[in-house]
Amino acid sequence: MLNNAEMNIEKRKEGEALLKIKDISLSFSQYVSGLRQTELKVISSLSMEAYSGEILAVVGSSGSGKSLLAHAILGILPSNAKLLGKMEYKGQELTQEKKEELRGKEIALIPQSVNYLDPLMRISDQVIGSVDERNAELMKQTQRDIFRKYDLKPDVDRMFPHELSGGMARRVLVSTALINSSKLIIADEPTPGLDEKNLNETLSYFRDMANKGCAVILITHDIEAALKISDKIAIFYAGTILEEANIEDFKNDGENLRHPYTRALWNALPQNKFQAIKGHQPMQDEIIDGCFFYERCSRRNELCSKGTPQLKMIKEGLVRCNNVS
Amino acid sequence: MKQKKFGIFIGKKIIRLIILLIVVCIASFWLVEQSPIDPVRAYIGEMSIQPEQRAILEEYWGVNTPSHEKFFNWAGNVLKGDLGISLIYRMPVTYVIKERFTASLILMASSWLLSGIVGFILGIIAGMKSGSLIDKAIKTYCYVLIATPTFWLALILLLVFSVYLGWFPVGLSVPIGLTSEEVTLFDRVQHLILPTLTLSVLGVAQIAMFTREKLIEILSSDYVLFAKARGEKGFDLVLRHGVRNVALPAITLQFLGFSELFGGAVLVEQVFSYPGIGQATVAAGLRSDVPLLLGIVLVSALFVFLGNLIADIIYEFIDPRIKQQETTT
Q1: b/e per residue A85-109 (b: at least 16 CB within 10 A)
Q2: Shortest Cα distance from B236 to chain A (angstroms)?
Q3: CATH 3.20.20.70 fits A2-106+182-239, yes or no
Q4: What does the pLDDT average to over B165-170?
């Protein structure tokens, strides 16, 4: 594992990122009491990069808007969403048109649950998706091959989503990303409620994809699962990414971690110090001028309450904090 | 396993139907008994008769027999398949109903199909383009239709197309003055068009609004979001996921609408003088033809029950999700 990660750092220095996200922000306009409109900011000044052959885990608590990040990359946000900032895919700007062209082909989403499958469509048709008559035969073959690899028996093809067991559903959802041989795979919370064995198995699918040269973005609230297979961990907090750390930074007391929040998160794990810090994440309608972690930070100073800290490159990782160097 | 399940389901439904028919018989018989209907008057019409003759007729029609005895006489005959003799048509009730019901069935079936198809298509268009001008136009059209009384619409259509434009005949189901051999299919169709149109135009609104709501709900579902994420879009997406998921509930609703269809037919047939079951109902009611009225009540109860039964079968046996739940529990 360590070897793998070291190799990837090498790659990072040379290669271009497959997906670059620069300072995006996402807000929703909502009507409150009559015609008064408010802006609800769910993502702000978020930057991250995904590299081919790597798994980048985006770790954050549930309901903090991580899924919306995935939807923003795919361009499937609701119509009242406003997305600002810049995204690049293979060095080219990723506009809405470009997203529509690429999604389902080069960029694939692995959804959270079986609810994302059409309840009245048979599994094989669903995994194959919408294809030309001419390619139907070939796609059917590909689908069968993938299912065989994942140990899904032929009778699964004719099943409806509600007939799948939890483990089968997981493998079917993963299959949807493989059938189009996508380059960038975004897995949205793919491991909830899985037992140890199923969890490891599912995680290994993602490792496989990365080893075959895909860039995998793994969105999860489960930092332990993320630590098992990822190359880099991005810490998602209050709609932004506070730190992007390499996997080997997570060790001992977390002294290699750059951001105070990441360190707190690491030390809160049962197998580490099992210490929680006080407070909670700021709400989405709170307007914060300054560092998002200001209220809970033990190392805050006056500078931290004024303006969002700049993103800094420190020891091969990225961090938004004024107090590290 | 599946056949057994279906057998049990049908068995239960039949028991329910029998109970329903018994209750309908008792209730409608009681209502008729309570109403100030004089069968002798209904039979002789406006003729004047001697008191002796009247006494004979009263004896014949059983005016002075106690109610419960009358009921059991009638119910016993119904069980034997004899619904009695219609007072106004002077023919067996079963024969009248058969004849009239066949005529109505063509009318109801064609308008049922037409309203279902047109309503579904309009609903899909409105739901797909929700919020657009075309959606608003369809919605307005539906609201206006829902608020329109059937007989009024029938009169307007009659006025415009039959009286002013002269495209269609003013009434009846066949031209006047021809023997039944001389009537062509074209004649029948021409007489059917306006009544069908009236009856279906009103049915369109309900199914269109339902389809629209349902499609909007589906289009904001997780699985449509995922389909979009996989590159599906536009009409193809609506066809693949929208129509597939709307169709079953919409068809179910259309079958549940049998009762309204029957009610609508009564009014439409009246306006167009179309000799169907609806017109017979009105005639039987106004002219105190008790045997015919009771017979029609039974048949219409059966008809509406059939609609609900089909809806239930679709719901329980065709939808794969329900099927699964049934077999696992």
Answers
A1: bebbbeeeebeeebbeebbbebbbb
A2: 8
A3: no
A4: 81
